[in-house]
């Protein structure tokens, strides 16, 4: 389970409408990028050493998408109320104008499956909503799981990247319409009207390029700067725990001999499961639903354990083999659970260093494995309701005090 309130499952839903996915790899971290002057940001130092990072954006390559049909289904919204009067009062809480309320009432009809009302607004009404009105109305719609597009919208955090569609090369008319349909919550930019855009631009190539742009994710490229006075044994203890200290130490020694400013890409310091996937998209070797729990539970696995594609098994192992820990003192690989009131666990990721985490945001094949900032991930998942965090550690990975080298 991952991002039950985000664009990953929205992507998966549209995949059922005819999106066939291919396999692709992500980009590699380069030393040159990490040494690009003022762009690199230093993390807070700790037992992990001096980590520096660059903000970037991951986008699935063209080979990931092959469109076999287009999502052009008519817009339909559900509101769970008992009467037309109750519907009007509920919608009035979104601060819509009387004219807007009248349009929605005219297109409302009792839902065919149980209580509530179904609304089928005209495209002109949807397009004409001001961003603030759209945000208010869609926040209401997001409360009902029937409204998949609002409950799990595409989303993008603008804290570190100011333009969702920069360099996406969308057709001007498509980009203008999409930007008009984007709405905001804090630093998040949200989008819920893909079928509407595709109805007006029913071209598979347009759909593919738009889907790729909407599926973009903010990520971090990071490296460890090794200085002449750093304790390599302590660094190797942090990054190599529990059984990789010697090879990590060898790598760190090589970097230190390179002189001041040498940096080791963080991927090279991480366990094999992470190193092989970081920045990449699922391949044919990965299980069909390689989502957040499969990822977080296999962080230290020599060979991925397929049990962790089963949520019941994940819950059992977390209960039996993990203990809750508190900051300060998080260590590499700790599992961070994101919980929502009334929903339970909605996401899981792994602690890396400072505020960096390793994550895969859902089981979709167009979602890569990433490094990102924990604060950004919290904001990403705090729609439409906030999340709380719980940090767990495997009992057999609890470090014990040891003498200084």
Key words describing this protein structure:
405 residues; alpha+beta; 2 domains; six-stranded antiparallel β-sheet; 16 helices; disordered N terminus
Structural class: alpha+beta
Number of strands: 18
Please give the radius of gyration in angstroms. 23 Å
Spatial gap, N to C terminus: 42 Å
> What would the average pLDDT be, to the nearest integer?
87
Globally, the shape reads: elongated
The strand order across the widest sheet is 13-18-14-15-16-17
- What fraction, in percent, of the residue positions are helical? 25-40%
Mind summarizing the main beta sheet? Answer: 6 strands, antiparallel
What are the segments in which pLDDT stays under 50 over at least 5 consecutive residues?
A: 1-38
Proportion of strand residues = 15-25%
Number of domains: 2
The total of helices stands at 16
What does this protein structure show overall?
A 6-stranded antiparallel β-sheet has the order 13-18-14-15-16-17. Strands 2-3-11-12 form a 4-stranded antiparallel β-sheet. The protein contains 16 helices and 18 strands. The longest helix is centred in the middle third of the chain and has 13 residues, at 245-257. Mean pLDDT is 87; it is low at 1-38. It is elongated. It is α+β, with helices and mostly antiparallel strands and 405 residues long. It has 2 domains: 7-60 and 218-396, no CATH class; 66-214, no CATH class. Helix 11 (232-240) crosses helix 12 (245-257).
Secondary-structure map:
Layout: H1 7-15, E1 19-21, H2 31-34, E2 41-42, E3 50-58, E4 65-67, E5 77-79, H3 84-92, H4 98-106, E6 108-110, E7 117-119, H5 123-128, H6 131-141, H7 148-151, E8 154-157, H8 172-181, E9 183-185, E10 188-191, H9 194-200, H10 204-214, E11 217-225, H11 232-240, H12 245-257, E12 263-265, H13 272-275, H14 292-297, H15 311-321, E13 322-325, E14 335-340, E15 344-353, E16 356-360, E17 369-373, H16 374-381, E18 388-394
Antiparallel strand pairs: 1-4, 2-3, 3-11, 5-7, 6-7, 8-10, 9-10, 11-12, 13-18, 14-15, 14-18, 15-16, 16-17
